[in-house]
Amino acid sequence: MTSAFTLLGATAALAFNISGTVVNNTGKSGRIYITALQGDQGPGVSISSAGSFTITGVPSGNYTLQAFVDTQGNGVRHANDPAGSLPVSVSSSDVTGQSITVTTPATVNAVAPQIIVYRGNGGNFVMWDGAKDSNGRPIADKYRVSWSASNGGAVIGTKDIPSGDNNFFAHSGGLSTYWYKVEAIVGVTSAASGWTSVTTTSGVTVTGTVNLTGITATGPLLVAR
Q1: Model pTM score
Q2: Percent of the chain residues topping a pLDDT of 90
Q3: What is the pLDDT of residues 146-201, one digit of tens each?
Q4: Beta strands in the chain, from DSSP E residues, in sequence order
Q5: In the structure, what pLDDT confidence band is assigned to residue 6 with cuts at 50, 70 and 90?
Q6: Beta bridge partners of 125
Q7: How many angstroms separate the Cα of 4 from the Cα of each of 15, 57, 69, 95, 200?
Q8: How many CB atoms lie under 10 A from the CB of residue 24?
Q9: C-alpha distances out from residue 85 to 55, 98, 206, 209, Å
Q10: What are phi and psi of 8, to 5 degrees?
Q11: In degrees rounded to 5, what are phi and psi of residue 218?
C-alpha cells in the first residue's frame, strides 16, 4: 500500500501546467480550443474567446501547442478555421508566458457532395460524402439540404446541417416523390450537388422495438443500418 501511494505521488509530481494567451485578430469568433499535442493527442483546454489559458496536468516532454477557433460551434476543427501553433518543451517546472496567434488559413474551396436519398418509415434519409482536406478536416462550414416536388423545381424547404462527423439528414414527413440537393457552404460561397430523387428499395423488411431507459424522447427517432 505504501509503495502504491509513493508511486502515485511521484507520478503526480511530474505533471506541470502550460499557460499563456491566445491572440485572435481574424474577425472570426467562436470558442477557442488549445491542445498540447504529442502526435495527434494530448491534454488541452478551451476558452470562450481570445485571452488567457492554462493547461494542467502536462507530463514532461516536447509538445506542439495548437489552438483553433471553433467557428461552427460544434467542437470540430474545420479546414477554414483560424488556427495557430508553437513548439513548447516541459521539463521540471510550469511553462508560462506562451503566446499563440491564430490566423486565417488559405481558403479551401467547397466541394460539391455526392448524395443519395433512401425512403424510410414516415420520411426520407438524405446522405452525402463530406469532403475533407489533406489533414482530414471537414472543408464545408455547413451543409444546406433543400427539397422540391420536382427535379429542379421550386424549393419547398431547407435545413442547415453543421459540418462534422455526421453527414446525413433525416427528413421526417418527407414524401417519396420529393427531390433533394445538398450544398456545401464555405463562407459566402457554395458548391451544390445535382437534384436527386428518393431511392426506393425492395427486399427483406426488418422490424423491431426500441426501448428508451432513463430518457424522454422529444423528437423523431432515427434508426439506420
Answers
A1: 0.78
A2: 76
A3: 999 999 999 999 999 999 878 999 999 999 999 999 999 999 999 999 999 999 76
A4: 15-24, 31-37, 44-47, 51-59, 61-70, 83-90, 95-102, 115-120, 123-128, 142-148, 155-162, 168-172, 179-186, 189-192, 196-197
A5: very low
A6: 118, 170
A7: 18, 20, 41, 29, 62
A8: 21
A9: 15, 10, 50, 49
A10: -65, -40
A11: -120, 5
pLDDT of residue 18: 97
Residues making up the chain, counted from first to last: 225
Cβ(176)–Cβ(124) below 8 Å: yes
- Could you tell me the pLDDT band of residue 223, with boundaries at 50, 70 and 90? low
DSSP state for residue 173 in the 8-state scheme = T
C-alpha cell at 90: 516541459
Cell digits of residue 80: 477554414
Cα pseudo-dihedral 179, 184, 188, 189, rounded to 10: -90
Burial class of 159 by CB neighbour count within 10 A (0 to 12, 13 to 18, 19+): middle
Enter the DSSP assignment of 203.
S
CA distance 164 to 73: 11
pLDDT digits (tens, 9 = 90+) for 43-86: 999 999 999 999 999 999 999 999 999 999 999 999 999 999 99
63, three cell numbers: 509538445
Order of all β-strands in the sheet with 168-172: 115-120, 123-128, 168-172
Task: Take residue 210 and report the three cell numbers written for it.
Answer: 426500441
Tell me which amino acid residue 135 is: N
